[in-house]
User: Fold this.
Amino acid sequence: MKNVLLSIEYDGTNFCGWQRQPAKRTVQGELEKVLADLCCVEVSLNGTSRTDAGVHALGQRACFKGEFAIPLENIGRAANNILAGGNRHKAGDVRIKEVQEMPLDFHARFDAKGKTYLYRLATGEVPSVFARNYSYFIKDPLDVALMSEAAAHIVGKHDFKCFEAAGGNPRETTVRTITALEVTEADGGITLAVTGDGFLYNMVRIITGTLVDVGSGRIRPDEIPGIITSCDRQNAGHTAPPQGLYLAEVYFDRLPEIKTGKKLQQNSIFNV
Amino acid sequence: MKNVLLSIEYDGTNFCGWQRQPAKRTVQGELEKVLADLCCVEVSLNGTSRTDAGVHALGQRACFKGEFAIPLENIGRAANNILAGGNRHKAGDVRIKEVQEMPLDFHARFDAKGKTYLYRLATGEVPSVFARNYSYFIKDPLDVALMSEAAAHIVGKHDFKCFEAAGGNPRETTVRTITALEVTEADGGITLAVTGDGFLYNMVRIITGTLVDVGSGRIRPDEIPGIITSCDRQNAGHTAPPQGLYLAEVYFDRLPEIKTGKKLQQNSIFNV
Assistant:
């Protein structure tokens, strides 16, 4: 018996999210089908994050167990070939980046110490047809300095109930620690990068919407502490749409220290 | 009666090309439907270039005639709103960039003096799920200096029959003038920019495939003149796939002079 951990990249545009659902195309469903065919064993994937429809991943993690008919090192290559429809010049919309064996008691969700999400905002006069599924277009000018000031109030250990949408799984506590929340301006857009030990339902999208509301002047940065302590979703900003959100990285060893000023490798992520 | 010229951007991924076809989703078909509803007049669009399925446009041009119920300056905004499904935070996959009135005898195809196409190659160890519909992934290392050397042999006035695919409309002559063909390396890829007074069927894709074959060592740059004078498609390289191709610009006044070294504004085009 082996316990296999995958690192997975996907374009969420044409998926009804991560989680397997009957008669719907989901990332988990597609991967389980391909892996079961390849490994000649029924596959049940445990993903770190149940991303919503339209949300992307640069580094989703998921593990599965089984006695496999093919060597571990061939699983990724063989699966990607099937996922790309046999076209070696074009990826499919989901791709396995890495395959590794883990101890049998390892679990991709329960053992995750934290995650980094990116959120991409596109700014400018008009929306681009090419960015429509990969960013949130904002026509209003956004004040990045105000957004950064607001972001600094969010970093830390807080009860983040104000940033939780209804409809998620019940949680024991709504206290989470955000170790970094950076707002970076680059050609034609703004990227938010948020790292934390865990996230409530739609938390990154509500934080993003709130920071957009700060950037456009609807909320002042100094209102953020009061919004957080109110524990009231009504006081926070709007929920940003799914297509700008990317699950970027999952941490199993330990969460990175609180830090600022880290430059994102934007070119490698967002250039097509 | 007015003659209206449009500048149009589209993501060709989910279109069966430009040209109207019964029961298929095409750019011309979608635009004619939306414009007819808006203008309360039957609309027949003349596009400059009949792009193939999967091919994109940054600046396709098309004109149509009619007596309109709405003012000219409202056509673009109203059409884009319908094309985006009423979502002002997200473009549709086709968008009107500009609307202008032209003399009645102006024709978007017959009056075009030339065009610029871009072709985007993605390089690296593995293909990206995000680039799959917007570039041609090449795993082999490509020698950009060799590609530029080969490109220089293609610039000029030649019989380009060797770069014409079967299946296009019959042409009076296969002589064309290429005024610029530039190969530029940027983060994670290579962009070709080719400007000419006209292009044969699949000509840019065959030139691209030939330059890729040069870059990977299958064709030497000094073989290009012989390939051109042979007038034989068999001697040229492979046909690059449609998803890397972008109709970038159409020239009506005059074709730009032959020039080299022009830096592309890549960020504004390819960043999402």
